[in-house]
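Q: Now give one record:
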Amino acid sequence: QVQMLESGGGLVQAGGSLRLSCATSGLMFSINVMGWYRQAPGEQRELVATITPSGKTNYGDSVKGRFTVSRDNAKDMVSLQMNSLKPDDTAVYYCHALYGKREYWGQGTQVTVSS
């Protein structure tokens, strides 16, 4: 059974930083494209960042230059370093795994940025 558990969310002031982590189990982690998505109240879920098994990254336009996604294939973990946070970054952040047509989601972790 695949499990994906996010951690590191919380409340931070604008301009601050947070680091999210996603620990996985039951997944052939090293072959999956891993990613982070977020969903704010009343909004659709949107891409934050993805990272391929080889380490190629892709970012949503709103986070480019501020967020950094990384993965540790030895620990089956993916992380998201978030710097220069803005109130618009407030959302539930979800960890995502994709291999072919198989995808999995974590339960999400709340990030709140106060102005």
